[in-house]
């Protein structure tokens, strides 16, 4: 979660595993859209001797649909290559043989570079070649000033900013609880197996990912290159998703390599879809499909397994949801709107409807201005902040809590007027508590989460020496 090792096959292929996707209007540059696709989940910072890196044999792509048909109108492609540095003939086994203070230092033995290409109706355009990634954050002795390396690794191509490299994972979820029979620690008194209400924890605290990030002018992503005048404009919303592909044939032995056409092995639009909505037997298949074909998965949105489980695991807490789902002909138009078609103008100041085509994409209304981080609600539209999820997704949005509320029927009454949401539906959350749900970005510091105020927004990666998740407390003897 949000898409960390979410399907059986991709869990065995972490360099091609898309973990999170973000799309938002940049708060410090409101004429720009920031797109971030994360890969390689659950990185422990103390990763030596072989630290994490992008796959040289993987095609990473970020797709934009600006016509509402679930097909890509603009694609940004990233291809990586790894280069070993001459370290003076020492034949070293080390990632670095001294301090790394710049991206060109010979003391750093294993560098990665990449090429970025944009494909659109006008053709194929190379935005940058041999762009440097920063190193993994080995530790304070090896890298005394990581922020300086981050700054060096932000490249520009015209008005577009580009970054690819290791970042602190900004996603947060209580994995140890939620996958233990759907237990939510703050709500254990109502759980089938009773327990005391305790605070939910962030199971991904102090772990890293690898990010591909772009900051692009709005007018380079919209249909016809126009800047929408109002959030109600028909062309104000774009759809975004990311994919990873591998070539169909892998050759082993002396002449090892890859050949043949590219085959998609991973994709991600909205968070938690393949984890929670798609059943186990379809997860690998779903990863290889295109968003424009997502109507074939409609029944899993209409009758989500998690909603049925909530009625079993929290008996009596969701009587209205239980009565609604007991009628087999009742579907979930609320989940269709949030996750498959975009939301029509049901809420004041917000819509991101792209038409009848059902497609899993993050939908961002680029005419809705960003909210200042200090006053943003991490619950997005549910929290009264129309600049957050499901209007795109910001790096700090609490998508687990938002989708828990949605699956429990908190938004169903907005679409099915005869339905009255259960009081418990709007209360669900997993990280924080036990009595108060985190609401502001500043509340997240208690869970080891900080975020940058400028591109690429996700914080510098945790380092292997000082990583708090692996610190052992000394015992006086």
Set out the fold topology:
Layout lengths: L17 E9 L2 E15 L14 E8 L8 E11 L25 E11 L2 E10 L13 H7 L2 E3 L2 E9 L6 H4 L29 E10 L19 E15 L5 E12 L4 H5 L5 H5 L10 H5 L2 H9 L5 H8 L6 H9 L20 E4 L33 H9 L70
Antiparallel strand pairs: 1-2, 2-9, 3-4, 3-10, 4-5, 5-6, 7-8, 8-9, 10-11, 10-12
Provide a descriptive summary of the structure in words.
This protein is an alpha+beta fold. The protein has one domain (10-450). Helices cover 13% and strands 25% of the residues. The chain has 9 helices and 12 strands. The chain has helices spanning 146-152, 175-178, 273-277, 283-287, 298-302, 305-313, 319-326, 333-341, 399-407; strands at 18-26, 29-43, 58-65, 74-84, 110-120, 123-132, 155-157, 160-168, 208-217, 237-251, 257-268, 362-365. The strands form 2 sheets. Strands 3, 4, 5, 6, 10, 11 and 12 form a 7-stranded antiparallel beta sheet that branches. The chain has a 5-stranded antiparallel beta sheet with strand order 1-2-9-8-7, with no helix packed on it.
Key traits:
alpha+beta; five-stranded antiparallel β-sheet; globular; 477 residues; seven-stranded antiparallel β-sheet
What's the average pLDDT? Answer: 94
What's the total count of β strands? 12
- Termini Cα gap: 41 Å
Radius of gyration from the alpha-carbon trace, in angstroms: 22 Å
Which structural class should the secondary elements be placed in? alpha+beta
Strand content: 15-25%
Task: Give the overall shape, derived from the CA principal axes.
Answer: globular
The helix/strand order is EEEEEEHEEHEEEHHHHHHEH
Largest sheet: 7 strands, antiparallel
Number of helices: 9
Poorly predicted runs: 473-477
Helix content: 10-25%
